[in-house]
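WARN retry 2 of 3 for item q-0093 after timeout on previous attempt; input resubmitted unchanged.
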Amino acid sequence: MRRSYIPVFLFLILGVLAGSSTALGQTQKAKSKKATAFRWVNPLSEKEIARYPSVTHATFESTSLEEKVGYCIYLPPQYAEPQWRTRQFPVVYYLHGGRPGSEKKSLKLTEVIHQQIQSGAVPPMIYVFVNGGPVSHYNVPSDPAVRGADVFINELIPHIDSTYRTIPRREGRALEGFSQGGRGTARLMFRYPELFCCASPGGGGHATEKRISEEGGAESPELVFAEGDNTWDLATTYAERLRKNECPQVDILVHVGDQGFNYANNLDWMKHLRELDIQHESLIVAGAEHNALQIYEKVGKRIMLFHATHFKSPVKER
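OK item q-0093 returned
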C-alpha cells in the first residue's frame, strides 16, 4: 500500500508560511518601533492626565528651532498652597533615557517623587522633564535641527525660571537623568558647572562615550558629534578647569543598578573620575536592573535627598 506524503508536505509548507508570517510581523513591529516619529511636542493623553494629576504639560517657543518645544513639569503640592505663594522652589531637571526624545518618557517617576514629597520625607522641589531632541540630549554639528543640548540649556532653563517660582540660580538648580539621560547629565554637568549645584547621572552608557572619545566624536559612521563632547574628555577638561579655579565644583552622585548592563562601565568611568581627582559619591543599587523606575522605587528617596542636601538655598521667600 502506497503511503501518501501530501499531508506531511502541506503541514511543512503551512509551518514555513506561518513562521514567515510571524517573522514578518516581528520585523514590521521592530521597524515600526524603530521608525517612531520624533516630535518636539508630545501632549499628555487623557489617561496620562488622570494618572499624573501633579504633572502639567506645557510648551515654549524655541527661537533657534522656530517652533514649539514641549516639556512636562511636576509642581509639589506646596506650590499652590496660599502660605507658600511667596516662596521660590529649587528645580531638578530630569533627562529621559532612550532615543528619540519625548518629554513624557520618565513620568512614571513622578508617582515616587510625589509620594516622598507629600509624606514630608523629602523637602518640596520642582521636577522638569525635558524633551532631549532627535538624538536625546546631544547636539549633532552637521544638522542644525538636532540641538537637544542647546535647546535645553539656552532656552528651556530661562523659560522655566521666567514662568515658575523657581530659585533662578545655580544654588537652586540640579540635573539628573538615566541611561541616555545619564550620559546627557554627565556631559552637561561638566560643560555647564556654573548652572547646576549638583547632578546625579544614572546608568549611563559610558562604554559608548569612551568609544566616541577614541573615535574623535563618532558613535557610528552615520552619527558624529563634536570632538571632545563625551563623558570621558569632558571629565578631563572639567578637572583641569577645577585645578585652575575656572569653574565651581558640582556635587555628583553616580547611581546604577548592579544587575544593569551598564554596571561595569559605570565602575570603569568612576575609576576615570577618581584618577582625575573629581569628587563624587556612588550609589550602587543592589538587585536593580537597567530600569529608572525600579531604581527610584528602591532608592528614589535617597537620590532626592541628595539634591535637597546640596541645594545651597532650599525653598525661600521670593
